[in-house]
Amino acid sequence: MRRMPIQKPRKGSITAMYKRVFLHVRSHIGLLVGAVFCIVTVSALEFVIPQLTQYTIDHVIPGKQYSKLLQVGAGMLAAALLLGLFNYCSSRLMASVGQRSIYDLRGELYRHIQTLDIDFFDRNRTGDLMSRVTSDVGMLQQLISSGMLSIVTDSFTFILVAAYMLWIDWELTVIILATFPIMFIVTRYFSKRLRLSFKRVQETVGEVSNHLQDTLSSIRLIKWFSSEDYEGERFAVKSRDNMNANIGTVKLRAVYEPLIDLLSYAGLAAVLLFGAMRTMDGALTVGTIVMFMSYLRLLQNPVRSFSRTINTVQQSAAAYERIVEILDARPAVKDKPDAVVLGPIEGHIRFRNVDFAYHTGTPVLRQLNLDIPAGKMTALVGSSGAGKSTITHLMTRFYDPQQGTVTVDGIPLADVAADSLRSQMGIVSQDILLLNGTIRDNIAYGKRDATDEQIIAAAKAANAHDFIQSFPDGYNAQIGERGVKLSGGQKQRLSIARALLRDPRIIILDEATSSLDTESERAIQDALQQLLHGRTSLVIAHRLSTVRQADSIHVLDKGQVIESGSHESLLNLGGKYTQLYELQFPQDNKDNAAAGKPVAALASDRRRQQAP
């Protein structure tokens, strides 16, 4: 299995970011066109107002045209009202485009994460993934709604005004524009550092989210060990890192923005100085120089605005890099284009010469050969780390082996559509997975179209119906996060009911009763008899009492099957299985020594005594 690391962001990520964002924006092209129309209108109206100012100074005032003052005032008021209206429309339309586009992007990111294999989640922390889906995507929303609006408006205004100023007085305009290359160099210098700084901020946000997710999901452990102060200190360290990263960003902005303002005022001083000289020489009118000053403001506003927008752009670029790392990740385990969609299966699973390692150089399974017959109960036993749970991971195709093949009914799992395989499997594990919701929701999770009658029937078969009815809300009772309001036995019976409702052909029991008390285990064993009847079942257990009735038992050691047979035949071998049995049932050894019988004979006597 080839591990796929998260890819590093590509060069030119701002351009790539805009291209990718545009793929989402273009699906809302109608709103975007309306926003662009409003932006163009805003720029045109801003262009008109200085013209009215020049006309008033150069013509109305010298000519004492009192009758024109009302018209000029009405024109300015109308322009201002229209300016406010179209600014409102453009802001609202761009905000709508931004929100809709981010909705699409967040949905794409979430769906993509769902397609990634288990190995990806082994390598990435939950809190960091949550931060990328929420915080990082939210940063891009600022870019689309306000940042993009500002960039488009300012660019259009800058081009229009600069062209007109060059036409009016190119010499004065060139003096003004001489400051812009310096602004560009300053902006380029700071933009790289701002992006790295903003990325560090986002990474520290991810670390804070990781810590919150870890501690809040383990709050009972923290309370048990009175570790509140310790965890508070750990959180303070991560929060302090986030604070320092933000302060570093503020320092860069505190230097960058005043520099841009200084260059802007230098341009204003140049216009005032040379413009006044030209006016005193009679080359320009007072109205023209006032108009030039107004246009200079319009010319410099985009630059000042861009100095602020660049913060949003770089912040968004840093967030985008973290998002694209996820979007570019590809699962190592995925269906082939011509993958076989399984119909109803018999459930015969075979492992042939299988080698597997989670990490290179650390093999878990070595040349494993294992046969799990259809309709039979097969058990796996062995020490921790022998590879028992890994076999279930390969059966469900969470991973693919590096060598060898795993087949179902003779078809290699690598050639099978994973959904069609997993839809015919059920699993009941020691780590019970329940969702925050009702009992009904959790039982029906694997078969969401199940009727109430089917859900109740599954609960009864799992010996869960009686305790469910004891709740005031019955099947509509809320179980809390991960089933916190239920006992271990109750949660396990819900897990069995969920598996029963799905009616799987293959059942995997992974230490399903290891953490339960004797009374709960007895009730669940009865439920398991219902679940396993007539199905292919693989039982993993440390307790050998759980696997005695298995049709075949395989003993694993260091990733290989070293013994196989029935419970009694394995005891007669006197090998690893016998050692495990003697460790768990030391009383049998004492009785054996007293009676002079082998362990297998004594175990047989006990079964006869317990038989009805």
From TrEMBL:
InterPro entries in UniProt: AAA+_ATPase, ABC1_TM_dom, ABC1_TM_sf, ABC_transporter-like_ATP-bd, ABC_transporter-like_CS, P-loop_NTPase, Type_1_exporter
Keyword Cytoplasm among record annotations: no
Ranges that cross the membrane: 21-49, 69-90, 148-166, 172-190, 259-276, 282-299
GO cellular component terms listed in the entry, alphabetical order: plasma membrane
Renumbered residue ranges of the record's region Disordered: 589-612
Molecular function per GO: ABC-type oligopeptide transporter activity; ATP binding; ATP hydrolysis activity
Pfam families: ABC_membrane, ABC_tran
Domain ABC transmembrane type-1: 33-315
Protein name: ABC transporter ATP-binding protein
Phylogenetic classification of the source organism: Bacteria, Bacillati, Bacillota, Bacilli, Bacillales
